[in-house]
Amino acid sequence: MDYTLVLLISVFHVLSVGTGAPLEGGSVESEQIKQKVEKYANLLIARIVRLNLNYQNTSHETLEPSIKELEGPSSIVTVLKGYNDLISDSLEGVTQIKTELYILTNSTDEWSQQHCKQPTKSSEPELLKKLQKLKRFTHTVGTKALMRVKEYLSLLRRNLDLLDIC
């Protein structure tokens, strides 16, 4: 992956977001991050679906994440970073997905740092840990990670209010 592109997008993102202090009450900022997360979630889900990976879940393991994995911004950041790291650059058509997932993760992390007085460190879900142990099978793990991201973002999209929990 061309890291210059990721770095350039990150710089543009930081410049567009600004560095102002959070507003009193935070309700405007809260709505903005929810809208941004929803927008990126919809975009990423559509891109993943368009990849048409024809993933066959032969392990009979559920791809549907648990609501417990959404314990606020810090857990969302941990999960999205973890899965993004597992998605192989060798999979065709994932560069844009990885870049947008990176932007979504960083936006959520910035929100967490500004909104939460003491952001908690979140542990990784068991399914993510299992995939990390199998990282050497890049194509299979990358494909499964993409499917998990899609399901995770669908769950997040339905529970945007969890972004307000620190």
What report would you give on this structure?
GO terms for molecular function: hormone activity. With 166 residues, the protein is mostly helical. It has a single domain, classed as Growth Hormone, Chain: A (Up-down Bundle), CATH 1.20.1250.10. It is 63% helix and 0% strand. The protein is built from six helices and no strands. It has helices at residues 3-17, 27-51, 73-86, 95-115, 126-133, 138-158. Helix 2 runs antiparallel to helix 4, helix 2 (27-51) packs across helix 6 and helix 3 (73-86) runs antiparallel to helix 4 (95-115). The longest helix is centred in the first third of the chain and has 25 residues, at 27-51. The protein starts with a helix and ends in an 8-residue tail after the last helix.
Main sheet characteristics = none
Number of strands: 0
Compressed to H and E, one letter per element, the order equals HHHHHH
Radius of gyration: 16 Å
Which strand-content bin applies to the residues?
under 5%
The CATH C-level name is Mainly Alpha
Q: Count up the helices.
A: 6
Q: How many domains in all?
A: 1
User: What's the CATH topology label?
Assistant: Growth Hormone, Chain: A
Structural class: mainly alpha
Unreliably modeled segments:
1-25
Produce a short descriptive summary:
It contains six helices and no strands.
Entry keywords:
single chain; globular; 166 residues; Growth Hormone, Chain: A; mainly alpha
